[in-house]
Amino acid sequence: MKDTAKHQGLRNQLAAVLEQKGITDKNVLDAIKKIPRHLFLNSSFEDYAYQDKAFPIGAGQTISQPYTVAFQSQLLEVRRDHKVLEIGTGSGYQTAVLCALGAKVYSVERQNELFKQTTVLLPKLGIRPKHLSFGDGYKGLPNHAPFDSIIVTAGAPTIPKPLMAQLKIGGRLVIPLGEDHQIMTLLIRKNETQFEKHEFGEFRFVPLLENKN
């Protein structure tokens, strides 16, 4: 598991590309420069790891393109020691970016194969989320709520009500909404019952799957 000066150079180039595409949060760009994305991919994709593209990671899932990771992270407005709930750990790349931003990350993954991989990989890289969980993302993590922010890394037809309930007042929930393609949506919780909604254009995600039992 090597991370070389060449990889660092490619990360710096990637951060420059993301800045050109409109990512303005310096902390997010710094996190992208820090996290060795090639180690979160199948080694056959290593040569392409710092292109702004999504790649398959197994179990029918993908690692989001870096622009999407940066865009969602920027919308969250993460501050150091913020409690962040991530729905869909996937490869662990977004988890690692959130940790690099100083967040206390609680992450849920419903694909056991991916859950097992990330619980081994992240500690190996010195990345320590507060809590990794195998379970149904639609339900969130009520025992650890409330959260300063919540990020959903798969497309959902509607916003799961349990996630809205687990958000602090003033908190931000970022979720791609839609079936075939998704609209990136930000909810800001104004009080117990009211949420302010903002939309940020079209993205493409794998679907957020719900346990039916």
**Coarse morphology:** globular
H and E string: HHEEHEHEHEEHEEE
What percentage of amino acids are in beta strands? 25-35%
Strands of the widest sheet, in order across it, are 5-4-3-6-7-8-9
What's the number of helices? 6
Straight-line distance between termini = 39 Å
What is the residue-averaged pLDDT? 93
Uncertain spans: none
How would you sum up the major sheet?
A: 7 strands, mixed
Walk me through this protein's architecture:
- 29% of the residues lie in helices and 26% in strands.
- It has helices at 5-20, 26-34, 66-76, 93-100, 112-124, 161-165, and strands spanning 55-58, 61-63, 83-87, 104-109, 131-134, 147-152, 167-177, 182-189, 195-203.
- A hairpin with a 2-residue loop joins strand 1 (55-58) and strand 2.
Task: Give me a quick take on this structure.
29% of the residues lie in helices and 26% in strands.
Offer a few descriptive terms.
213 residues, alpha/beta, seven-stranded mixed beta sheet
Secondary-structure map:
Elements: H1 5-20, H2 26-34, E1 55-58, E2 61-63, H3 66-76, E3 83-87, H4 93-100, E4 104-109, H5 112-124, E5 131-134, E6 147-152, H6 161-165, E7 167-177, E8 182-189, E9 195-203
